[in-house]
Amino acid sequence: KQARQLENELDLKLVSFSKLCTSYSGARDGRRDSSDTTPLLNGSSQDRMFETMAVEIEQLLGKLTGINDKMAEYTNSAGVPSLNAALMHTLQRHRDILQDYTHEFHKTKANFMAIRERENLLGSVRKDIESYKSGSGVNNRRTELFLKEHEHLRNSDRLIEETISIAMATKENMTSQRGMLKSIQSKMNTLANRFPAVNSLIQRINLRKRRDSLILGGVIGVCTILLLLYAFH
């Protein structure tokens, strides 16, 4: 009964907690759509409400965990049959419910924290932009230089990442080609060892090709000399 009561309370708290996070995100989006300089109404109150509800849900989860531990101790006690399927099924069901509620709570809390962190960062950026717009003289120049330097750093990071990606791809291709060449060389060596006659024939063909190349080169050289002599005479 205590476990079911805590589960009902947790269910209601988690629904309200999820609605709070949704309304917080919607209010932030509406503020950005309407005006970048309009302050968010009840922003701090929503933060306080979030913290309060998070603490309450954590306390309820702790109590429900304690109840589950007591039920587990009861099922493992000497006076309770170890093969009571109904008790084990009930305990497992309550454990699954606790696990689901814990997962849902942490997921909703993480989403809320991410939205709030993003909004804080955006608010800081908007504040810097407004400060830049309202500034003058040296402040404007200094801020402009900082922005240019930041953009240069971002471009440098992007170029470095692209260069690293190209180098990694080239390395992989060269490794693959080296493996293919080693495989081809190994197959050729195997073939040459198995067929000595083929190897000898290939060497003779190469020698004949070299001889033909030398003869052809000599003929071309003689013809060239004759043409030069004929042209100058």
Automatic annotation (TrEMBL):
GO MF annotation, one: SNAP receptor activity
Q: What role does this protein play?
A: Involved in transport from the ER to the Golgi apparatus as well as in intra-Golgi transport. It belongs to a super-family of proteins called t-SNAREs or soluble NSF (N-ethylmaleimide-sensitive factor) attachment protein receptor. May play a protective role against hydrogen peroxide induced cytotoxicity under glutathione depleted conditions in neuronal cells by regulating the intracellular ROS levels via inhibition of p38 MAPK (MAPK11, MAPK12, MAPK13 and MAPK14). Participates in docking and fusion stage of ER to cis-Golgi transport.
* Similarity comment: Belongs to the GOSR1 family.
Q: Which residues form a coiled coil?
A: none
Question: Could you tell me the Gene Ontology terms of the biological process aspect for this record?
Answer: endoplasmic reticulum to Golgi vesicle-mediated transport; inter-Golgi cisterna vesicle-mediated transport; protein transport; vesicle fusion
Species lineage, top-down?
A: Eukaryota, Metazoa, Chordata, Craniata, Vertebrata
Broad class of where this protein is predominantly found = Golgi
Name under which the protein is recorded: Golgi SNAP receptor complex member 1
Family matches, as InterPro entries: Golgi_SNAP_su1
Q: Which GO terms describe its cellular component?
A: cis-Golgi network; Golgi medial cisterna; Golgi membrane; SNARE complex
Subcellular location per the Swiss-Prot or TrEMBL entry: Golgi apparatus membrane
Keyword Ribonucleoprotein among UniProt keywords: no
User: Where is the chain membrane-spanning?
Assistant: 214-232
Organism of provenance: Tinamus guttatus
